[in-house]
């Protein structure tokens, strides 16, 4: 069985797609592709393995201190985490310009802008939480792909010192990602961690199939990229973020992102070093929380960076591919490395990937 992870790396000002190949993929290693630091043209990068190096040689030091900062006044919705399915809001159909003519990361295929028409749909107002996923697993006995494979990717900054000392390899070019045995949605930082005190945080370490299985169980589905982006924009035209163009209007944080120097120091100015409880930040104009930041969110689309400029109705992306589109960025995103907490921004992972910053939410055609 092949299981390949895709990581992102900023090299010489260019975001490089850095795949990590594990297990039986090891024979497919192609270090020349992984180690090359291309100028932009990143869309041409091949899938290949990253070199690994001893942990001792890595120089990054993790951010591991929690710091409460802004947002002293929590959202009214906070604390309303549910042990059932998420509330949904109607996203009234309409047309919008998907993508942008001013891409923050051109290699990601953010351009060109294209006119898209969408039918109405309902969207969960929050990322699916660990509590909700636990209900699903309790009802179905579902086993996630990370649990089957026996490992998942964890950001070094959230690992315990004990566990870090046991790991002997890391991705050479992106040493902040470590493959951790036993990491899963129940144990986000490995076997010595649990979710007891954060059941209202987004569920992590779920693959694309895992996310789809949850949505199907809920009689829902993953959003298309177009639906997700339309919902993110919440009726605003040509804006970077769900709330406008300023990242922190009047000094207030509107999303759980990274402040400080990635990957070595996260100041936690927004109140959270890692994930936050869902709905800790203000909703957008459609009543949707955490559309950018907190956890990345899977969409149903296959990945491509080539888009038609023809008007489209309810586009569903390419018919096939190797990676799936994810949207919104995460608590790990900083402008210097991952300027992807914009509605037009996008990234991708192989469908069987899972990591400590990737989750999802569901949509439906029907009110439920
Ligand atoms: Ca944060
Ligand atoms: Ca999110």
TrEMBL record:
Coiled coil ranges: none
Bilayer-crossing regions: none
Gene3D superfamilies: paralog of FGE (formylglycine-generating enzyme)
Keywords attached to this entry: Signal
GO cellular component: endoplasmic reticulum lumen
UniProt GO molecular function: formylglycine-generating oxidase activity
Chain spans, region Disordered: 53-82
Signal peptide: 1-16
Record's keyword annotation contains Signal: yes
InterPro entries: CTDL_fold, Sulfatase_Mod_Factor_Kinase, SUMF_dom, SUMF_sf
Biased composition (Basic and acidic residues): 55-82
Family: Belongs to the sulfatase-modifying factor family.
Name of the protein in its database record: Sulfatase-modifying factor enzyme-like domain-containing protein
């Amino acid at each position: 069985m092949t299981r390949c992870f895709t990581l992102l790396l900023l090299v010489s000002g260019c975001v490089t797609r850095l795949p990590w190949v594990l297990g039986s993929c090891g024979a497919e290693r192609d270090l020349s592709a992984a180690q090359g630091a291309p100028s932009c043209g990143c869309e041409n990068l091949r899938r290949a393995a990253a070199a690994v190096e001893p942990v001792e040689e890595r120089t990054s030091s993790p951010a591991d201190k929690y710091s409460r900062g802004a947002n002293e006044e929590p959202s009214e919705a906070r604390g309303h985490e549910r042990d059932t399915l998420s509330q949904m809001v109607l996203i009234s159909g309409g047309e919008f310009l998907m993508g942008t003519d001013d891409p923050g990361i051109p290699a990601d295929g953010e351009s060109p802008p294209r006119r898209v028409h969408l039918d109405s749909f309902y969207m969960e107002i929050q990322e699916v939480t660990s509590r909700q996923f636990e209900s699903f697993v309790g009802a179905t006995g579902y086993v996630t792909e990370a649990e089957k494979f026996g490992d998942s990717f964890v950001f070094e900054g959230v690992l315990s010192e004990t566990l870090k000392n046991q790991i002997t390899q890391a991705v050479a070019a992106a040493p902040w990602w470590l493959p951790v045995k036993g990491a899963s949605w129940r144990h986000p930082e490995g076997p010595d961690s649990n979710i007891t005190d954060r059941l209202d945080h987004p569920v992590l370490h779920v693959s694309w199939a895992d996310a789809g299985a949850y949505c199907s169980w809920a009689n829902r589905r993953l959003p298309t990229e177009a639906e997700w982006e339309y919902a993110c924009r919440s009726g605003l035209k040509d804006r970077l973020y769900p709330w406008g163009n300023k990242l922190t209007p009047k000094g207030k944080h509107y999303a759980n992102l990274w402040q400080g120097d990635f990957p070595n120091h996260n100041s936690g100015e927004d109140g959270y070093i890692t994930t936050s409880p869902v709905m800790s930040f203000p909703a957008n104009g459609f009543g949707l929380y955490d559309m950018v930041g907190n956890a990345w969110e899977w969409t149903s689309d296959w990945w491509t960076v080539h888009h038609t400029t023809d008007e489209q109705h309810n586009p569903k992306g390419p018919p096939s591919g190797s990676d799936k589109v994810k949207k919104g960025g995460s608590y790990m995103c900083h402008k210097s490395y991952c300027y992807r907490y914009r509605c037009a921004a996008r990234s991708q992972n192989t469908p069987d990937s899972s990591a400590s910053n990737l989750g999802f939410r569901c949509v439906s055609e029907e009110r439920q």
